What we know:
The chain has one domain: Oxidized Rhodanese, domain 1 (3-Layer(aba) Sandwich), CATH 3.40.250. About 25% of the residues lie in helices and about 20% in strands. It is built from three helices and five strands, in the order E-H-E-H-E-E-H-E. The protein has a five-stranded parallel sheet. The chain is globular and about 30 Å long.
Amino acid sequence: MKEITAKELEQKLTSGEKLNIIDVREDLEVATGKIPGAKHIPLGQLALRKNELDKDKTYIITCQSGNRSKAACGILEALGYKVEDMVGGMNSWSGKTE
């Protein structure tokens, strides 16, 4: 499974790269702030909402600490999606949030 650090992700966003980020945290966690432009799909809804995703795109998955994003990557890879796990989750994010 491919991995990306919070710093690498922040640099890509700062340089204007168009990225597909999925935040798999719960509603209350996302309410504290998420990466700008990230799509919120709680981990428990991921398989049910897979039709919202495009198999031709790569998705960067984030959660709070990195455990759920790893699980989400496993689920999505098994379903045929291209994913990258953001190591350390939002705990390691120092960029802007919305």
